[in-house]
Amino acid sequence: MRRSVFPLEVALLLAAAATLPAPPRAEWAPVPDVNDLVIRQVGQFAVLVYGLAHRKDLAFLGVVCAQTQEAVGGGTNYRLVVAAAKPGDGGRAAEYDCLVWGVPGSSSDTWKLRRFRKKIQN
Questions:
Q1: Nearest Cα to 60, choosing from 25, 35, 78, 77?
Q2: Residue 64 lies in a domain
Q3: Which residues form the Cystatin domain (predicted)?
Q4: CA 118: distance to chain centroid?
Q5: CA 88/CA 54 separation, integer angstroms
Q6: Which residue segment(s) compose the domain that 37 sits in?
Q7: pTM for the whole thing?
Q8: What is the pLDDT of residues 48-87, one digit of tens each?
Protein backbone atom coordinates (compact mmCIF):
# COMPACT_ATOMS: atom_id res chain seq x y z
CA MET A 1 0.00 0.00 0.00
CA ARG A 2 1.27 3.42 -0.93
CA ARG A 3 1.37 6.21 1.60
CA SER A 4 -0.07 9.63 0.70
CA VAL A 5 2.20 12.66 0.85
CA PHE A 6 -0.80 15.00 1.03
CA PRO A 7 -0.65 15.53 4.85
CA LEU A 8 3.05 16.37 4.56
CA GLU A 9 2.35 18.93 1.82
CA VAL A 10 -0.38 20.55 3.90
CA ALA A 11 1.92 20.76 6.92
CA LEU A 12 4.65 22.40 4.83
CA LEU A 13 2.20 24.95 3.38
CA LEU A 14 0.90 25.83 6.84
CA ALA A 15 4.43 26.25 8.17
CA ALA A 16 5.32 28.52 5.23
CA ALA A 17 2.17 30.60 5.70
CA ALA A 18 2.91 31.05 9.40
CA THR A 19 6.27 32.62 8.62
CA LEU A 20 4.89 35.21 6.20
CA PRO A 21 4.80 38.74 7.60
CA ALA A 22 1.39 40.23 8.31
CA PRO A 23 0.22 42.73 5.71
CA PRO A 24 1.00 46.29 6.76
CA ARG A 25 -1.88 48.36 8.09
CA ALA A 26 -2.83 51.22 5.87
CA GLU A 27 -1.92 54.67 7.14
CA TRP A 28 -4.51 57.31 7.94
CA ALA A 29 -4.72 59.90 5.17
CA PRO A 30 -6.03 63.41 5.84
CA VAL A 31 -9.06 64.49 3.83
CA PRO A 32 -8.29 67.89 2.30
CA ASP A 33 -11.94 68.88 1.72
CA VAL A 34 -14.20 68.20 4.71
CA ASN A 35 -17.12 69.56 2.66
CA ASP A 36 -16.83 66.67 0.19
CA LEU A 37 -20.27 65.08 -0.23
CA VAL A 38 -19.19 61.61 0.96
CA ILE A 39 -17.42 62.99 4.04
CA ARG A 40 -20.45 65.12 4.97
CA GLN A 41 -22.73 62.09 4.53
CA VAL A 42 -20.49 59.98 6.78
CA GLY A 43 -20.65 62.73 9.43
CA GLN A 44 -24.44 62.96 9.14
CA PHE A 45 -24.66 59.17 9.40
CA ALA A 46 -22.58 59.20 12.61
CA VAL A 47 -24.73 61.87 14.27
CA LEU A 48 -27.98 60.21 13.18
CA VAL A 49 -27.04 56.70 14.31
CA TYR A 50 -25.69 57.92 17.64
CA GLY A 51 -28.83 59.97 18.22
CA LEU A 52 -31.12 57.05 17.43
CA ALA A 53 -29.14 54.54 19.51
CA HIS A 54 -28.84 56.80 22.57
CA ARG A 55 -32.09 58.78 22.24
CA LYS A 56 -30.19 62.03 21.90
CA ASP A 57 -31.52 64.85 19.77
CA LEU A 58 -28.46 66.18 17.95
CA ALA A 59 -28.33 68.28 14.81
CA PHE A 60 -25.38 67.77 12.48
CA LEU A 61 -23.57 71.07 11.83
CA GLY A 62 -20.53 69.96 9.86
CA VAL A 63 -17.27 68.05 9.70
CA VAL A 64 -14.33 69.80 11.36
CA CYS A 65 -11.61 67.41 10.19
CA ALA A 66 -11.45 63.96 8.63
CA GLN A 67 -9.08 61.11 7.86
CA THR A 68 -9.59 57.90 5.91
CA GLN A 69 -7.91 54.51 5.99
CA GLU A 70 -8.30 51.41 3.86
CA ALA A 71 -9.90 48.83 6.12
CA VAL A 72 -8.52 45.33 6.42
CA GLY A 73 -10.91 43.05 4.56
CA GLY A 74 -12.36 45.86 2.45
CA GLY A 75 -14.22 49.08 2.91
CA THR A 76 -12.97 52.32 4.38
CA ASN A 77 -12.50 53.57 7.92
CA TYR A 78 -13.43 57.21 8.48
CA ARG A 79 -12.07 59.09 11.49
CA LEU A 80 -13.96 62.36 11.83
CA VAL A 81 -14.45 65.22 14.20
CA VAL A 82 -18.01 66.48 13.71
CA ALA A 83 -19.75 69.51 15.13
CA ALA A 84 -23.28 68.93 16.42
CA ALA A 85 -25.70 70.77 18.67
CA LYS A 86 -28.90 70.09 20.53
CA PRO A 87 -31.75 71.93 18.80
CA GLY A 88 -32.87 74.92 20.83
CA ASP A 89 -29.63 74.96 22.82
CA GLY A 90 -28.73 78.48 21.76
CA GLY A 91 -26.50 77.22 18.95
CA ARG A 92 -23.84 75.90 21.32
CA ALA A 93 -22.01 73.31 19.29
CA ALA A 94 -19.92 70.49 20.66
CA GLU A 95 -17.34 68.44 18.84
CA TYR A 96 -17.44 64.66 18.70
CA ASP A 97 -14.77 62.12 17.72
CA CYS A 98 -16.27 59.53 15.39
CA LEU A 99 -15.06 56.33 13.82
CA VAL A 100 -17.19 54.93 11.00
CA TRP A 101 -16.63 51.94 8.72
CA GLY A 102 -18.36 51.59 5.39
CA VAL A 103 -18.20 51.00 1.69
CA PRO A 104 -18.92 54.11 -0.38
CA GLY A 105 -21.89 53.53 -2.65
CA SER A 106 -23.30 50.66 -0.57
CA SER A 107 -26.60 50.62 1.28
CA SER A 108 -26.81 52.25 4.70
CA ASP A 109 -27.36 48.94 6.54
CA THR A 110 -23.77 47.88 5.76
CA TRP A 111 -22.26 50.95 7.47
CA LYS A 112 -21.17 50.80 11.11
CA LEU A 113 -20.62 53.49 13.72
CA ARG A 114 -17.67 52.23 15.76
CA ARG A 115 -17.11 55.21 18.06
CA PHE A 116 -18.85 58.47 18.91
CA ARG A 117 -17.66 60.43 21.91
CA LYS A 118 -17.70 64.04 22.94
CA LYS A 119 -14.35 65.80 22.74
CA ILE A 120 -13.15 67.30 25.97
CA GLN A 121 -12.51 71.02 25.51
CA ASN A 122 -9.19 72.25 26.92
A1: 35
A2: yes
A3: 33-104
A4: 17
A5: 19
A6: 26-118
A7: 0.75
A8: 999 999 998 999 999 999 999 998 888 999 999 999 998 8
